[in-house]
Amino acid sequence: MQGSSRAAAAASRDALTGALAGGADRSRLAEELFAVVGLLDGSTALRRAVADTSREGSDKVALADRLFAGKVGDETLAVLRGVFGQRWTSERDLTDTLETYAVESVIAQAEGEGRADRVEDELFRFERIVASDAGLRSALTDAQASGERRLALVESLLGDKVAPEALGLVRQAVRAPRGLRFDRTIVRYLDIASRRREQQTATVTSAVPLTDEDRARLAAGLATVYGGTVHINTVVDPRVMGGVKVEIGDELIDGTVIRKLDAARRAMGA
């Protein structure tokens, strides 16, 4: 996001912050914002009208009122007015920002229920499962299959096995990927969650599952090095044999046995 869109996103965030701090029904706020994103994505004329840089912000705020007053909650309308009234570099920046606010509302709901970490873990694990299973990935993204069929598959796989916020976001990713692959959509949601929670995320690969104590100790150690809070996502891969591989930001710390063996083989062959 560049130019005026960056300033627009910063200016419109106050409306979201106010809605969340004011006791909004966060689930409803998310649902309504996702619905508006879908409406804008489906209407070129409306999307252009909202993002038209030649129109005054007050005109676009009035447009939000005409379209949505009485049809969405007051908090949702306040967020829409805050977003519509800004000057955006592109239509996509505007709709992406609305989608970001919808995801943040879901994460805020999870935070209020004390299960935000669980939601992140479940989204990450399901994304990895789908990425490693071509058949499942195809079934979830098959444009020839009805939306109801794909959503029914999600329900059968996850149902009451995951937090409602995680289920809702997976359903949204299947229902409206917005031109992205399913896995990229989930990764985007996870990035939004990390930014909202002001934390970094580390992906840790190990030969055996880490205990809660292992995860806590590793998170604390990484936080000391990188600052802030670090959330740990784990991947179990027996091929690493032992040790752990840590990916955080653009950095890779590979302390696995297999890497050490590879290094030894290279040294012996040198």
Tell me about this structure.
The structure is a single chain. This protein is of the alpha+beta class and 270 residues long. It has three domains: 4-112; 116-195, no CATH class; 199-269, no CATH class. The protein is 66% helix and 9% strand. The protein contains 13 helices and four strands. The chain has a four-stranded mixed sheet, sandwiched between helices. A hairpin with a 2-residue loop joins strand 3 and strand 4. The longest helix has 22 residues, at 91-112. The chain is globular, with a radius of gyration of 21 Å.
Supply the key terms:
3 domains, 270 residues, alpha+beta, 4-stranded mixed sheet
Strand tally: 4
Mean pLDDT: 88
Tally of domains: 3
- One letter per element, helices H and strands E, the order comes to HHHHHHHHHHHEHEEEH
What's the helix and strand layout?
Blueprint: H1 4-21, H2 26-41, H3 44-51, H4 57-68, H5 74-84, H6 91-112, H7 116-132, H8 134-141, H9 147-157, H10 164-175, H11 182-196, E1 199-206, H12 212-226, E2 229-236, E3 244-248, E4 251-254, H13 257-269
Parallel strand pairs: 1-2
Antiparallel strand pairs: 1-3, 3-4
Helix pairs in contact: 1-5, 1-6, 2-6, 4-5, 6-11, 7-10, 7-11, 9-10, 10-11
Pfam families: OSCP
Function: This protein is part of the stalk that links CF(0) to CF(1). It either transmits conformational changes from CF(0) to CF(1) or is implicated in proton conduction.
Main location: membrane
Task: Offer a concise description of the structure.
The protein is 66% helix and 9% strand.
